[in-house]
Design brief:
The chain is rod-shaped and about 120 Å long. The strands form two sheets. A five-stranded mixed sheet has the order 1-3-8-5-6. The chain has a four-stranded antiparallel sheet with strand order 2-9-4-7, with no helix packed on it. The chain is of the alpha+beta class.
Length: 185
C-alpha cells in the first residue's frame, strides 16, 4: 500500500493551506482584540482628561465667585503713600472671612513693581488689577503665588486686592498678613 507521491503532494498542500488559513484567522482575531483594547483605553483616557478639565473649570469658577463675593460684600480701599525718599511700603494688617482690601498704588508706565505678601493662612492671596480695572486681574495670587515681579504696562493706580479664598471666608477664618510693595525708578 504505497501511496504515490503524486497523491501525497496535493494532500500536503491542502493541509498547509488549511493551517495557513487558521493562522490568518488567529492573527485577525488578535488584531481585533488589540483594536478593542486600544479603543477602551482611549475612552478611559478621554474620561480622565474630561474629569481633569472639569476640575480645573471648577477652580476657575470658584476664583471668579470669590472676586464676585468681594465686590458684593464691599471692599475697603486704601491709598498707598510712600514715605519721603523711599520707593517701598510695607503694610501689616489682617482680614477675616469675606473682608477684602484694595490697596491703590500709583505707578508710572515702565516702572518695575515687586509685590509680595507673607501670611500663615494658606487661603489668603492678592490679585493685581490694571488702572481703571475693577475685577479683571493681570496677576492672580491664588494661581501664581504671593510674589509678583513685573513692569507697569501703563501709568495709573494699580489695585492690589487682598482677599481670602471662598472656602476659608465661609468658615470665617482670619489671615494676618504683611504686604510689601516696591516700585523702582
Amino acid at each position: 500500500m504505497k501511496m504515490s507521491i503524486k497523491y501525497f503532494t496535493p494532500l500536503v498542500a491542502l493541509l498547509l493551506a488549511v493551517s495557513l488559513n487558521s493562522c490568518k484567522q488567529e492573527t485577525k482575531d488578535k488584531l481585533k482584540d488589540a483594536e478593542e483594547a486600544v479603543v477602551e483605553e482611549t475612552k478611559q483616557a478621554a474620561e480622565k482628561v474630561g474629569e481633569a478639565a472639569e476640575s480645573a473649570g471648577d477652580a476657575v469658577k470658584e476664583a471668579a465667585e470669590d472676586v464676585a463675593d468681594a465686590v458684593e460684600d464691599g471692599i475697603e480701599k486704601v491709598r498707598v503713600q510712600f514715605d519721603a525718599g523711599t520707593s517701598s511700603k510695607t503694610v501689616e494688617s489682617s482680614i477675616t472671612g469675606r473682608e477684602t482690601v484694595d490697596y491703590l498704588l500709583n505707578v508710572k508706565e515702565g516702572q518695575p513693581m515687586n509685590i509680595s505678601m507673607a501670611t500663615q493662612n494658606t487661603s489668603a492671596y492678592f490679585n493685581i488689577m490694571d488702572p481703571g480695572e475693577e475685577n479683571e486681574a493681570i496677576y492672580n495670587g491664588s494661581i501664581n503665588g504671593n510674589q509678583f515681579e513685573g513692569t507697569a504696562a501703563k501709568s495709573g493706580d494699580y489695585t492690589i486686592r487682598v482677599y481670602m479664598m471662598r472656602s476659608a471666608a465661609r468658615r470665617g477664618e482670619k489671615a494676618d498678613y504683611r504686604l510689601e510693595m516696591i516700585v523702582g525708578n
